[in-house]
Amino acid sequence: MPLPTIALLLTASFSLGALPLTEWAVRVFGRRDLRALGTGNVGVSAAFIHGGKLAGIAAVLVEIARGIVPVLAGRFCFPDAPAIAIALLIPLVTGRYAIARGGGVTNAVWGLLVFSPPVAVSSGIWGLLAWGLAQRWWGEGDRARLFASRCGCLCTPIWVWVWRQSMPEFLAATGLALLLAAINFSQGDDMALSKSEQLFSLDDSLDAAICGDKAAKLSQLKRAGFNVPTGFIWASKEEGRGKKEEGRGDEENGDRLLISNSVIQNLKSKIQNRMIVRSSAAGEDGDTSSAAGQYQTIGPVLTEAELLDAINRCRQSYWTSEAVAYRRQRQLPDTQMAVLIQPYIDSQIAGVMFSRNPLDGGSQIIIEALPGGAESVVGGQVTPVHLEIDFSTPESLEKSLSEFENNSIIDKSIIAKLVKQAQAIEAFFHGIPQDIEWSWDGEKVWILQSRPITNLQPFWTRTIAAEVIPGAIRPLTWSINRPLTCGVWGEIFQVVLGDRAIGLNFNETATLLGSHAYFNATLLGEIFRMMGLPEQGLEFLLRGQKMGKPPLGKILPNLPGLWRLVQRERALNAEFKGDRTSIFLPALQSLEKEEGRGKKEEGRGSSEEEILMPNAQCPMPEYKYLSELLEKAEQIQEWLKPITYYNILGPIGLAIRKAIFRVNDDWLANDSAPEIASVRTLQQLAQKLRQAAVSQSDETVSVAHLVQTFSETPALQADFEKWLDIYGYLSEVGTDIAVPTWREQPEVYQKLLISMAQKAQINLVEKRKLGLSFGQKWRLDKCQERALVKNEISEIYARLLAHLRWTFLEIEACGWAMQVFQESGDIFYLEFGEIQQWIRSGASVSFKDTITARRDRLLADRDRPIPPVVYGNLLPNSQKRSIELATSATNIMQGIPASIGRVEGFVKICRTASTDLGENAIAVVPYTDAGWAPLLLGATAIIAEVGGQLSHGAIIAREYKIPAVMNISEATTRLRDGQKVRVDGYLGTVELLE
After folding, report:
1. CB 311 within 8 A of CB 296
2. Is 941 in a helix, a strand, or coil?
3. What pLDDT does 606 receive?
4. What does the DSSP assignment read for 603-614?
5. Which of the four pLDDT bands, split at 50, 70 and 90, describes residue 888?
6. Is pLDDT above 50 for 245?
7. How far is it, in rounded angstroms, from Cα 673 to Cα 419?
8. Residue 564 has pLDDT above 60, yes or no
9. Among the four 41, 60, 117, 351, which has the fewest Cβ within 10 Å?
10. Above pLDDT 90, what percent of the chain?
11. What is the dihedral of CA 597, 600, 604, 605, to 10 degrees?
């Protein structure tokens, strides 16, 4: 046996094992350094855990090849001495462990599989059996897995002897097994670390359920290129089991044993200098709760002992009585506390900023800053520099920035950077307003935290709503349209979501703000996510951007629900035709027959195709007749429910069909659409009028001559009256019953007729002739029938709404006679429930004050700017928030507005957080850090001597909708117990009432 060849093979095997192949694979495919992650083990499991799936697969392939090569070389060079093939795996594994920092198990397994498949398979089966037995003894966990792995290694020599009956092979296998077992005992376990002591990086894509919302959001920002300090997250799935059951804090240090020394050492090796330890609990900095100041932040820390102590203190703060009470009040479950460890930033200036005004969502970026760390700003014990930057237009933003003068705290260049960061971060989070903690170290603006402004929810959008029901809306219209629209959308979403729709309040789909309709973008965004639509869904609602294509992985779970919706859409034509015959046509005929009787009593007849308006007078101004009219209005609304469903699903189905079959709008024949048919008929009548006028005079046809001709031609008048009777149900806004129909204003359309007749050429709407190919005609057929049905649906919907309007006009006429109403249109300023209560009570009532107030409000809302998006339930104030000069007397104290609302009450001076506040008191406090939260929650309003809009007290006040004013100097001495005051959290004023 040539010794030089053996020596060469042994050296080559060791050198092959020493090559950092897995490290290279992870650097290429995962862009990570395994030596600096987890346990520092550069193995296959570490590649999957820290490098990702692609890097893990690449690592498996290179290690398989590395294990096979020496075995094949040994068998090739020494076919008569197979023990050498096994022996060559020993220097390979040694090189892997000593230099490449791997375990070598993958190499040995695949090397043995090539050497002898029965040996490898038997060892694998034995290892699985050992794993099963270990799980019965110790339960599922890493202990059982490691035991099985070691048993698999140590039993390999036995199976070599069983299958090969060779002492040299047995000895070689024994040496390999002992080496693998020793390495297994000495190496760190990345899989165990990833399970029980999860150490993640902000460079990873983090799961908020494990790492908390704070870390997850910072990870998103860091990976998107924002200046976020490096950070590592430690999470333990064993966190606080006993405490969850007890629901109380634990001041002891028993949890310290849960953190291994390897984790502390690993963290200290990653961050060499001073560190800061911050909480990142599940639910903290979430969409609906901030948990501001509830958990501890500890820093700076330097040594390993300080780091261990800081982590434990931070984790224990999750179970303090204040934190537990906060979660109970916010109905948040007890989950787990992850800890975020980052380098400590030596700040020259730090603070917090809102990407929008936290009071009303207005277009102002709020910045508050102090020298040093941001904790002094949110702590509420010092009043920071307070800046408001208006960005409603580019000009206003430029003006706001130019007006700031450099001061000793923050100069204009830093302000400009902060504004840019605030707008960029809000845009990154799909337009959701952000509460951002920042720090300036003299060179960079660092982002330390970003969370949604919790009180600016829900988001309301005019997207779609402005098209469905534009303009200022009166209460009666809204009280009827809202339940109809919300009910139908709820039904459609329930079809798709099924049981997942439980808990969603579809009555909140729409609302009125400033007398204008808004859709709930927060609710719709949540529904979009549940349906698997892309993240851009919220940007579509808030900013009108394109939706983008939904990811296939999210669409697949929703296929059953989407298929149910498709089935409904396909059945729509047949279902509508059935309901048209059984419900809608009989309903319209009964309404028109009843109204036709009234017209005949006045001497006018009606044909079957005419839509007549009810009497403008009330024949019987008594409650019995009013009750009949009310029942009629209620019945019409019952008929409106199914037609509203068709009126929403029909256009959606048509739009989807047009997109699928790529049908252009101009291909569709819309001759039957009421708005087109009515114009065509009026054009034909105008042509008749012009011909009659020209035949009587050779002069140029003037307006006066056309008017005279019309007044002297009974046939033309009859044709015009018939046109009004047929199309008189139409109006400028078909969905708004407060808008007069064509039938109610004949003089307007008579002028339109005259204007059309005056034109020399009257462009009649003619049926277009399209030169479509066979394929295009086939595609058109898939949409044309739906377009025709959509037109029929629109006509029935508009007719029923017109009859509903006319019914209310008749009720109003009776109200005039009974002196309930004073002006035309008064009834539309009442809600339907108020009308029901009035008529059914039979009592004498007066709505004068209510109607006057609502009319004045509607007139004001028509003139005010209506933003496309509203954050929260309050329209931004179009005027700058300030008190008038006349109110600057000594009975008005001006502070910083912190939480909207206006409250009158009696003062209680609270110099400590343990003060007995009593009931319905206005708390006057020196400052508002997190420790004051239990006291503040019992107050009807909060007045603080110091602090700003971003202090913990202000954030808590907004979450709980408690009016609050900060920075009222010497409030605890200027005010006295029992003194009556008025707190205005929007203007930031405290008015002395006595």
Report:
1. no
2. strand
3. 43
4. T----TT-----
5. very low
6. no
7. 50
8. yes
9. 117
10. 26
11. 70
User: Which of these, 643, 544, 659, 650, lies nearest to 585 by C-alpha position?
Assistant: 643
- How many C-beta neighbours within 10 Å does residue 760 have? 7
Q: What is the DSSP string of 648-666?
A: HHHHHHHHHHHHHHT--GG
Residue 756 has a pLDDT of 84
Strands 902-909 and 921-925, by their bridges, are parallel
**For residue 592, what pLDDT is reported?**
84
Please tell me what DSSP assigns to residue 584: I
Closest of 404, 474, 376, 433 to residue 739, by C-alpha: 474
- What is the DSSP-derived secondary structure letter of residue 964? E
At 171, the pLDDT band (50, 70, 90 cuts) reads very high
DSSP assignments along 161-228, one per residue: HHHH--HHHHHHHHHHHHHHHHHHHHS--HHHHHHHSEEEETTS---HHHHHHHHHHHHHHHHTT---
Residues in the chain: 994
Q: How far apart are the first and last CA of the chain?
A: 111
Encode burial over 930-968: b for 16+ CB neighbours within 10 A, e otherwise: bebbebbbebbbbbbbbbbbbbbbbbbbbbbebbbbbbb
Burial zone of 503 (CB within 10 Å; 0-12 exposed, 13-18 middle, 19+ buried): exposed
Give one word for 21, left, alpha or beta, with left for phi > 0 and alpha for psi -120 to 50.
alpha
Give the C-alpha separation, 532 to 539, whole Å: 15
- Reduced to 3 states (helix: H, G, I; strand: E, B; else coil), residue 243 is helix
Cα→Cα distances 241→247, 249, 319, 335, 417, Å: 10, 12, 11, 9, 44
Q: Which of 428, 427, 448 is nearest to 437 (CA)?
A: 448
Gap between the Cα atoms of 844 and 381, Å rounded: 58
Which residues, at least 6 apart from 587, have a Cβ–Cβ distance to it below 8 Å?
A: 636, 639, 800
Burial of 699 (0-12, 13-18, 19+ CB in 10 A): exposed
361: closest CA among 212, 534, 521, 527? 521
Tell me, what's the pLDDT at 193? Answer: 54
Strand, helix or coil for residue 734: coil
SS3 content of the chain, % helix, strand, coil (to 5): 55, 10, 35
Stated pTM of the model: 0.67
How far CA 712 is from CA of 134, 753, 771, 850, in Å, comes to 106, 15, 46, 47
Q: Is the separation of the CB atoms in 281 and 319 below 8 Å?
A: no
Report residue 416 as tokens: 């400009």
Under 8 Å between Cβ of 244 and 334: yes
Find where tokens 């506390």 sit: 337
Q: What is the tens place of the pLDDT at every residue in 347-356?
A: 888 888 999 9
What is the amino acid identity at position 403? E
In this predicted structure, the answer to whether residue 774 has a pLDDT above a threshold of 90 is no
Two tokens, residue 884:
């008038």
Q: Between the CA of residue 795 and those of 214, 384, 502, 681, 790, what are the distances in Å?
A: 53, 61, 34, 16, 9
pLDDT of residue 830: 96
Of the listed ranges 93-97, 335-339, 522-526, the least confidently predicted one is 335-339
Q: Is the dihedral of CA 822, 825, 831, 833 positive or negative?
A: positive
Average pLDDT, the chain: 82
Structure tokens at 582: 């059984």
Nearest to 92 by CA among 77, 73, 75: 73
State the greatest distance between any 2 C-alpha atoms of the chain, in Å, as a whole number. Answer: 129
Backbone angles phi, psi at 158, to 5 degrees: -60, -45
For residues 633 and 808, is the Cβ–Cβ distance under 8 A? yes
Report angle CA 708, 713, 716 to the nearest 5 degrees.
Answer: 110
Question: How is residue 418 written in tokens?
Answer: 């902060």
Q: Rounded mean pLDDT of 948-952?
A: 71
Query: Which one, of 667, 641, 642, lies nearest residue 654 by Cα?
Result: 667
